[in-house]
Each structure stands twice: as C-alpha cells, then as structure tokens.
Amino acid sequence: MINDAASSKNREFPLGFSADGSLAYVRVEQDTGTDVLAAWDPITSKSTPLLHDDTVDSYRILRDLDCITPIGASYMSDRVRNRFFDEKAPTAKLYRSLEKAFDGNAVYITLATRDRRLVLVYVWSDRNNGDYYLFDTVDTHADRVFSRREWFPPDAVPATTQVSFKARDGLELRGYLSRPLHAEAGKPLPLIVMPHGGPFGIFDKWEFDDDTQLLAAAGYAVLRVNYRGLAYYGRAVTVAGAKEWGGRMQDDLTDATRWAIKQGMADASRVCLYGASYGGYAALMGVTKEPGLYRCAAG
C-alpha cells in the first residue's frame, strides 16, 4: 500500500489485517475534519470507510480476542463510546453485554486466553478510578482481580460533564466540567481552570482525574479545556495551535473562563489557573495576560 500524502491530502496509518488476511485496516488522517477508519483491499486497491465521528478522532483501536485483529475503535466525547466494524461479530456482542453489565462505565478488553474463554476486562469512569475483572465467556461470570483504589467508593465523588463553547475566532472547543458533589444547582462557584500538559498529542478525557476530584472535594468547580493544538479532534484543530503558545491557545483558556462566568457556573471574583507541564506555563501566562480575570495561578 502506497499513499502520496502530498497529492491525496491524507495521511494513512496501518492498523492491522482482517482475520483472513484479505483486508488491511488503516486510519486515515485528513486535512479537514476528523479521521476515518477504513478497510483497504490489496487486490483491487479499493478503500472502504468503516468508522467516522464528526467531532473526535478514534483514540484507541479495539481488537478481537486474538489481541491482534482490529474490530473497532473507542471514541472519547461525553463519555467513552465503543464502535465496531461489524456490530454482529461475536466480540462486538461481548463488548455490548459487558457495557450493559457495567452500566455507566467504560469497558476495554485488555487480554484473552488462547482459547478465548477468559478475558481480562478494564472497567472505569469519571467516578471510578478503574477495576480489572476476569470474565469467563462460557459461564458468563466476572471476578474482580484488583482495583486501582479498592478503598474508594465511586459515589463519593462528583460526575464530570462535557461542555462546549466557541472561541473568539469561531472555533468550537470542548472540555469537561466537574462541580463539588453537593453543590447547589445554579450557584456560581469558585473555579479552577486546569489546562492539560503537552500541549501537542495530549487531550483531556472523560475519566477519573485525581487533581480534579481533589479540588472538587475542597469546594471548587474544575474546568478542563481541550484548547487548540491538542490531539484527537482532527488535524486542523491540532495545526491551529502551531506557533500559538501565549497566543490563540491562551485565548482559548480565557474564552473558556469568560464562558463559564457568563453561564453562571463560576464566581467571577474567585477564578484561578492550575496546571503542570505546558499547563503550568499556561497558568502563569494566563495571569500575565489577564490579570483582572484570575485571582491566582499555580503550576
């Protein structure tokens, strides 16, 4: 398979082959829009699109119980959503049954025995730090192997909600908002804007985030912003962050803060920035560029 990115305007990345070896699966990164997962026939050179999301790229490839053959992908939006090339395939049906059993959680099969009877399943959410289960596909029984924090009850922390807003130049941005567990509905709260590190190749996820939950437990609302330059929202959004440190990337955080205030989510007099790596830089740059907007910064 040969792809001339200069002429096709696409970049193609091999993922693996179908079980019978007749098709190759590729991830196609486009100049505009999000990526496409496609099947390529080496005999006819025909490429057939299989999976695509209008908002986000695929962030994890799902494989059959041989742990080799691609069968689908996970997409990160308001939560983790698994999608498959063939919903009627046995492993796709297994995923759906596990998702039903672990309702409210994301599910990922990490390993399987050679006879495909036993599978190791990772289960997690924005409130669950992660559990591993050994699932018997014959007896349809799951035993918990271990938890990342066995002592931690998921109902002790708040849920995380995906939010969206437009930057000043019209670019649609998304992020995740977490409010203290028993916060009064509609009440503006002290807000921590928490830019992620990287910045390139990184993105904030729907998951249990230690810093977020620690701050929420202390009474703060926490806003994690997927500003331009990040991964997994399409190449154009990534490229939009080129040479924009302290520029439009920083403006995205400012716009997110002002959006949260306007929506009545944040107390305008009690907003701070906090981050690590690039996030630490963005926190300090934020109070430098917008001293009247933020009370403090930590990085």
From TrEMBL:
* Signal peptide (residue range): none
Single GO term (MF): serine-type endopeptidase activity
GO terms (BP aspect): proteolysis
Q: Supply the alphabetized keyword list.
A: Hydrolase
Superkingdom to which the source organism belongs: Bacteria
Q: Tell me which Gene3D superfamilies the record gives.
A: alpha/beta hydrolase
Q: Which InterPro entries match?
A: AB_hydrolase_fold, Peptidase_S9_cat
Q: Domain named Peptidase S9 prolyl oligopeptidase catalytic: which ranges?
A: 206-298
Name of the protein described by the UniProt record:
Peptidase S9 prolyl oligopeptidase catalytic domain-containing protein
